C-alpha cells in the first residue's frame, strides 16, 4: 500500500463522514474532497475536472431543462388528470401506473437517469396535485428506474448482451455468448419484487417530509398549470416527446444521448417554453457539483489502486471455491459495495474481466456470474456517487444521505438475496 493509496482512503473516509454528518452542504463536501484529492496528488487536474465535461453531467443538466419545459406545458396536468380519472381516484393504482412506465422505459433506454428525468416531472406533478409527500414516493420510483434496467429482452438488454459477448470473446470464451433473453431468465423476479416494494412497503422507510428544501416547490415557474400561450405550449410538448423518442432510438439514429438532450434543452429555451433568464435556475447546480465531486473521488479510487485493493481483498477472502452461491455473492456484493462510491459503469468494466478470468481458472460457466456483476453494479442507490439518478432524486424528493440509507437498506438486502439465490439457481456456474 503506497502513500497515495493511504491518502486517498483517508480522504474517502472523511468525505463519507461529512456526508453522513450533514453539517455542511453536500456539494461543498464534494468540492472540498475534489480539492483535497488534487492538492495531495491523488488525482491530476484532468481527472479532477473531468466531471464537468462528463457526458452524464451534461445529460443530467440538459434533461433538467427539458423536464422543466415539459412541466410548464398543459400536457403534464392533462396526463395527471387522465391517469387520475382512469384509476378512479385510487392513489395506489395511479402510482403503480408511473412505476410501470418507469419499468418499460428503463428497458428501452439504457440510462436510468434519463428514464427518471422523464418520469419524475409527471410523478411530482401527480404527488403535488394529490397532496402527497414527494419524499415518500420519489425515491422508490428512482429505485425502480435503476433496479429494473435492462431485464426485458429489449434495446437496453440487447446493447448490454453485445458488450458482454465481446468481453467473453476477448477472455477466451469464444464458443459462448450472452443473449438478451439471459437477462430476463436470470432476473425477471426483480420486475415483480421492486414494483411491489415501491407500491406497498417503500413509504414505510422513506421520510414523511423532505430533509432538504425542494427548490422546485417554491418556484412559481414549476406550477403544473400551464402559463404558456397555445402555440408555445404545443411546441414544448412536441420538443419533449421528440427528445424522448430520439433518446429511445439514439443507437439506431447514431446520436449521442447527451447531444439529443442538449438540443432538446436549447429548443425549449429558443422557443420560449423555458424563460432564458430562468433556464439555468432550473438546473440544481448543487447536485451537479455533488456528482462532479463524486466522479473525482471515483477516479482517485481507481487511479491510486485503492478500489482494486478493496475488491481484490474481498475476492481473496473466498479463494477458489466452487460453490455457486458463494461465487454469486462474491460477484454481486463486491461490485454492489464499490458502485456506491464509484460510477457504476466503471465498476462493471473492471469486474466483468475479473469475473471472466476467475471463471476461466475455475472452469465455470460465466453467464450467471457476469449477470450478477452487472446487477450488482446497477444496485446503486445508497449514495449519490454511483448513478446520476440518485442526485436527481435527492433534488426532487428533498433527501439527504441519511435518508438514502434509511430508505434503501431493506430493498438492498431483498435484491441481494433474490439475485444471489435465484440467479445462481437458474444460471449456475457449475
Short description:
The chain is mainly α. It is built from 22 helices and no strands.
Essential attributes:
430 residues; mainly alpha; 72% helix; globular
Largest sheet: none
Radius of gyration: 21 Å
Broad shape: globular
Q: Count the DSSP helices.
A: 22
Q: Assembly state here? A: single chain
Strand residue percentage: under 5%
The amount of helix comes to over 70%
How does the helix and strand content classify structurally? mainly alpha
Low-pLDDT segments, ≥5 res: 220-226
Alpha carbon gap, first and last residue? 35 Å
Describe this structure in words.
The chain is built from 22 helices and no strands. It has 430 residues and is an all-alpha fold. The chain starts with a helix and ends with a helix.
Secondary-structure map with pairings?
Layout: H1 3-21, H2 26-39, H3 45-53, H4 55-71, H5 74-86, H6 91-105, H7 112-130, H8 134-147, H9 155-170, H10 180-187, H11 190-200, H12 215-218, H13 230-248, H14 250-253, H15 257-270, H16 285-303, H17 306-318, H18 324-339, H19 344-362, H20 367-378, H21 389-397, H22 401-426
Helix pairs in contact: 1-2, 2-16, 3-16, 4-7, 4-13, 4-15, 5-7, 6-7, 6-8, 6-11, 7-8, 7-21, 8-11, 8-21, 11-22, 13-15, 16-21, 17-18, 18-19, 18-20, 18-22, 19-20, 20-22
Amino acid at each position: 500500500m503506497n502513500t497515495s493509496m493511504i491518502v486517498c482512503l483517508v480522504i474517502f473516509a472523511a468525505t463519507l463522514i461529512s456526508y453522513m454528518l450533514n453539517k455542511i452542504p453536500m456539494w461543498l463536501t464534494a468540492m472540498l474532497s475534489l480539492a483535497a484529492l488534487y492538492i495531495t496528488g491523488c488525482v491530476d487536474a484532468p481527472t479532477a475536472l473531468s466531471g464537468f465535461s462528463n457526458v452524464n453531467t451534461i445529460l443530467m443538466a440538459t434533461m433538467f431543462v427539458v423536464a422543466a419545459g415539459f412541466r410548464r406545458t398543459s400536457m403534464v396536468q392533462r396526463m395527471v388528470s387522465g391517469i387520475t380519472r382512469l384509476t378512479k381516484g385510487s392513489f395506489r393504482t395511479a402510482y403503480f401506473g408511473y412505476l410501470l412506465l418507469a419499468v418499460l422505459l428503463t428497458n428501452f433506454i439504457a440510462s436510468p437517469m434519463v428514464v427518471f428525468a422523464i418520469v419524475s416531472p409527471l410523478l411530482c406533478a401527480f404527488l403535488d396535485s394529490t397532496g402527497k409527500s414527494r419524499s415518500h414516493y420519489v425515491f422508490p420510483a428512482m429505485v425502480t428506474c435503476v433496479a429494473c434496467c435492462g431485464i426485458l429482452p429489449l434495446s437496453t438488454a440487447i446493447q448490454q448482451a453485445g458488450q458482454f459477448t465481446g468481453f467473453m470473446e476477448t477472455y477466451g470464451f469464444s464458443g459462448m455468448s450472452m443473449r438478451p433473453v439471459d437477462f430476463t431468465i436470470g432476473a425477471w423476479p426483480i420486475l415483480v419484487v421492486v414494483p411491489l416494494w415501491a407500491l406497498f412497503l417503500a413509504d414505510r422507510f422513506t421520510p414523511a417530509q423532505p430533509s432538504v428544501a425542494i427548490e422546485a416547490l417554491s418556484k412559481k415557474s414549476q406550477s403544473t398549470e400551464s402559463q404558456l400561450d397555445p402555440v408555445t405550449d404545443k411546441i414544448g410538448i412536441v420538443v419533449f416527446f421528440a427528445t424522448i423518442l430520439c433518446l429511445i432510438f439514439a443507437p439506431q439514429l447514431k446520436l449521442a444521448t447527451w447531444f439529443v438532450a442538449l438540443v432538446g434543452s436549447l429548443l425549449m429555451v429558443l422557443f420560449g417554453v423555458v424563460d432564458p433568464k430562468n433556464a439555468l435556475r432550473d438546473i440544481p447546480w448543487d447536485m451537479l457539483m455533488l456528482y462532479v465531486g463524486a466522479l473525482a473521488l471515483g477516479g482517485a479510487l481507481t487511479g491510486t489502486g485503492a478500489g482494486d485493493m478493496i475488491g481484490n481483498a474481498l475476492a481473496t477472502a473466498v479463494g477458489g471455491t466452487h460453490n455457486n452461491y458463494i461465487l454469486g455473492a462474491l460477484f454481486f456484493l463486491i461490485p454492489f459495495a464499490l458502485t456506491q462510491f464509484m460510477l457504476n459503469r466503471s465498476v462493471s468494466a473492471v469486474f466483468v474481466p475479473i469475473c471472466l478470468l476467475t471463471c476461466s481458472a475455475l472452469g465455470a460457466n460465466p453467464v450467471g456470474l457476469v449477470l450478477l456483476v452487472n446487477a450488482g453494479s446497477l444496485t446503486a442507490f445508497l449514495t449519490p456517487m454511483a448513478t446520476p439518478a440518485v442526485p436527481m432524486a435527492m433534488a426532487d424528493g428533498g433527501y439527504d444521505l441519511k435518508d438514502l440509507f434509511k430508505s434503501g437498506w431493506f430493498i438492498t438486502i431483498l435484491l441481494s438475496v433474490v439475485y444471489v439465490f435465484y440467479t445462481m439457481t437458474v444460471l449456475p456456474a457449475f
